Amino acid sequence: MSSKMMFYILKRVLLALLTIWIVITVTFFVMHSIPGGPFVGEKAISKEATAALEAKFGLDKPLFEQYTTYLSDIVTKFDFGPSLKQRGRMVIDIIVDGMQTSAKLGLIAACAAALTGITLGAIAALRRNTILDKVIMVITTAFVSMPSFIMGTFLLLIFSVALGWLPANGTTSQGLILPVITLMLYPMAYITRLTRSSMLDVLGQDYIRTARAKGVPAPKVIFGHALKNSLIPVLTYFGPMLAFIVTGSMVVEQIFAVPGIGRQFISAIINRDYTMIMGTTIVLASLIVVMNLVTDLLYKAVDPRIEFD
């Protein structure tokens, strides 16, 4: 590994840590600035009991002291603290449990979206202006335009309610089929359009025409040159997309009752579970930052001409 690459990685890691710190700080102070608190909605709870709960979880201390204590626990012990609503459970344990489902759901959806999107995009580019190309573009435009909650509800009504082929609950393996399809359709359509546009641009380059003029076999031209060099825009999109899907789509998990991290995040917001909100936000931000870094490093593998600055 060259010194330039090492310096680039070090710089990106420091920027990643700075980004995560900013996310933690902004989320913490904005969350506490909203009127109310995690125990306001409790039924039949006295002011004395509320004060006792706030003292137990350290919410009675000055805000800046709460912030420094929380930041210190994360850095030194990787401790997100206990959940304020799910009594007796630690935030990290809840996140790990939720991520087991969300990661499986997201990885399958992301890989399926990438493989299908790249394949359809390449076919559309190679069959430009044909009926097949137009059909692919019409379908992908519809998927890009349709929000996930509409698509999820539509699939639920058709395959679960009307036909009864698949369960509506995402707690079983069969129940994850519809959530996977719902999660993959939008990124698949977007990747299809990215691949088609990028591949059309590459196919018009001089080196592609030169390779064809020299009699290089068509499969080698398509897969060895055109498709490989068309993947940079896809990689740019795929990294953050993977982090988002793996963390769990909140809307999709709610529709299909998937016990993932996205559903836990919505529940934490509704219940004003401060520590759970902070924990899930930090995990999501960290995944996005890490995937962006990995994506940048993969550029070099796809296109050796790229230099790290």
List the helices and strands and how they pair.
Elements: H1 3-33, H2 47-56, H3 63-77, H4 91-126, H5 131-145, H6 148-162, H7 177-203, H8 206-213, H9 218-229, H10 232-247, H11 250-255, H12 261-271, H13 274-302
Descriptive account of the structure:
This protein is mainly α and about 300 residues long. The chain is built from 13 helices and no strands. The chain has helices at about 5-35, 45-55, 65-75, 90-125, 130-145, 150-160, 175-205, 205-215, 220-230, 230-245, 250-255, 260-270, 275-300. Helix 6 (about 150-160) crosses helix 7 (about 175-205). The longest helix has about 35 residues, at about 90-125. The relative contact order is 0.14. The model has no long low-confidence stretch (mean pLDDT about 80).
Using the alpha-carbon principal axes, give the shape. Answer: flat
- Radius of gyration based on Cα positions: 24 Å
Estimated share of beta-strand residues: under 5%
One letter per element, helices H and strands E, the order comes to HHHHHHHHHHHHH
Count of helix runs: 13
Major pleated sheet: none
Mean pLDDT: 78
Structural class: mainly alpha
N-C termini distance: 15 Å
Fraction of residues in H or I helices: over 70%
* Total strand segments: 0
Given as residue ranges, the uncertain stretches (5+ residues, pLDDT < 50) are none
What's a quick, concise take on this entry?
The chain has helices at 3-33, 47-56, 63-77, 91-126, 131-145, 148-162, 177-203, 206-213, 218-229, 232-247, 250-255, 261-271, 274-302. With 309 residues, the protein is mostly helical.
